[in-house]
Design a protein that fits this description.
The chain is an alpha+beta fold and about 325 residues long. It is built from eight helices and 16 strands. Helices cover about 25% and strands about 20% of the residues. The strands form four sheets. Strands 1, 2, 3, 5, 13, 15 and 16 form a seven-stranded mixed beta sheet that branches. A four-stranded antiparallel beta sheet has the order 4-14-6-12. Helix 1 crosses helix 4 and helix 6 packs across helix 8. It is globular and about 55 Å long. The structure holds 2-oxoglutaric acid and fe (ii) ion.
C-alpha cells in the first residue's frame, strides 16, 4: 500500500514520462526514459519489488495498491478485440515504471501486435472464450505456458473493476500446494508427460505445441508450467497427477478483487492464475486491466527477437 505522498511521488514521475516524446509505449526512446525514471519510483516500493524478486513468498504475488488511477478521468473501457494501450497515458506510464523496476518489458508479436501495455477487457461475443477477452470462468494457467520464453512476471493493474465488483483474480500458489501433493504424484509431474497447445495466433506463424514437464527445477521449490485449459496429459498417470495438482492449487487459491489503483505482480514461475466469471455490460464502464509482461534476463530471448527490440517473434 503506497502512502499518499508515495502515490503523488510516483504519479509525478509517471506524468513526466507521459510528456516524454514521442509518448508511445513501444518506442525505444520512450522506454529509455522509463528506465531512467524507474529510479525515482518511491523507495519502499522498489525495496518491496527487490525483495519479491529474490523471494516471491508463499503466494508468488506482490500487490501494490493506491496507485494514481482516477476512474472519473479515464476514457470509456475499450470494447474491441485485441485492444492495447500504445499511448503513454498516466496508467500506462505508471505500469511501465513499475515493470522497469522488475526487469525488461517484453511482448509477443503474435499476441496483441507486440504491444508492451495491453488491455484486458471483456469483448462482446467472446464471453465464453478462454482468453482475457472472456467473462466466463478463466481456467488457472501459467501465462503463455506453451512458449519457451514465457514471461517471468505478469503485471495486472486495475483501471476499473466490473459493475458489481464480482470479478476475482484467482491465483494458485504452487509453494502452498506442493506440501499436499504426494511424492509419487510430484514425480510424475516432473516428467515430460504433458503437452501444451499454442493458441491459433501463434500456430499460424509456426509455433509448436510444447512437450514438457509440469514441475522443473529445485525439488522442494520447483517452477510450474501448466494451463488447465491448454495442457494435455499424455497418459493415464499424467492425467491423474494433473488432477491432484489442480485440486491442491484450487484448495490453496488466493482471491484478489482488484480495485482501481491496485497492481498485482504475479511470479509466473511459482503461481498460476485465473479469473472468476462476471457480467459485462459493454457500456464503456466494464472491467479494465492493463497487462504487461517482464523478463528478468532479456538476453535469454535474444535469438527470438530482432536486434534490441523487446518483441519476441
Ligand atoms: O482477468 C484477469 O483477472 C486475468 C486475465 C488473465 O489471465 C490475463 O490477462 O493474463
Ligand atoms: Fe493470464
Amino acid at each position: 500500500m503506497l502512502s499518499g505522498p508515495e502515490r503523488d511521488e510516483l504519479s509525478a514521475s509517471a506524468r513526466e514520462l507521459m510528456r516524454t516524446p514521442p509518448g508511445l509505449v513501444n518506442d525505444g526512446k520512450w522506454l529509455t526514459a522509463a528506465e531512467q525514471l524507474a529510479a525515482t519510483v518511491p523507495l519502499r516500493a522498489r525495496q518491496a519489488i527487490r525483495r519479491f524478486q529474490r523471494d516471491p513468498g508463499l503466494d508468488g504475488v506482490l500487490l501494490l495498491s493506491n496507485l494514481w488511477v482516477d476512474p472519473e478521468e479515464l476514457p470509456p473501457t475499450p470494447t474491441q478485440q485485441g485492444s492495447v494501450e500504445r499511448e503513454a497515458t498516466l496508467p500506462a506510464a505508471t505500469q511501465a515504471l513499475i515493470a522497469m523496476c522488475l526487469g525488461e518489458l517484453i511482448a509477443y508479436q503474435n499476441e496483441k501486435g507486440g504491444a508492451l501495455v495491453q488491455n484486458v477487457v471483456p469483448v462482446q461475443g467472446q464471453e465464453e472464450s478462454q482468453s482475457n477477452a472472456g467473462s466466463a470462468v478463466l481456467a488457472m494457467h501459467t501465462e503463455n505456458a506453451f512458449h519457451p520464453h514465457r514471461p517471468d512476471y505478469v503485471l495486472l493493474m486495475c483501471l476499473r473493476n466490473d459493475h458489481e465488483d464480482r470479478a476475482v483474480l484467482l491465483t494458485g500458489p504452487l509453494r502452498r500446494a506442493l506440501p499436499h501433493i504426494p511424492a509419487p504424484v510430484r514425480a510424475v509431474l516432473r516428467q515430460e508427460r504433458f503437452e501444451t497447445k499454442a493458441p491459433p495466433s501463434f500456430l499460424a506463424s509456426g509455433a509448436k505445441d510444447l512437450h514438457h514437464a509440469v514441475l522443473t527445477g529445485a525439488r522442494e521449490d520447483p517452477d510450474i508450467v501448466v494451463d488447465f485449459h491448454a495442457t494435455r496429459p499424455l497418459d493415464e498417470a499424467a492425467r491423474e497427477a494433473m488432477g491432484v495438482l489442480r485440486q491442491q492449487l484450487a484448495a490453496a487459491a488466493q482471491e484478489f478483487v482488484l480495485r482501481p489503483g491496485d497492481l498485482a505482480i504475479l511470479d509466473n514461475r511459482v503461481t498460476v492464475h485465473g479469473r472468476s466469471e462476471f457480467v459485462p455490460r459493454y457500456d464503456g464502464r466494464d472491467r479494465w486491466l492493463h497487462r504487461t509482461f517482464v523478463h528478468l534476463d532479456a538476453r535469454r530471448s535474444l535469438g527470438a527477437r530482432s536486434g534490441d527490440s523487446q518483441i519476441i517473434a
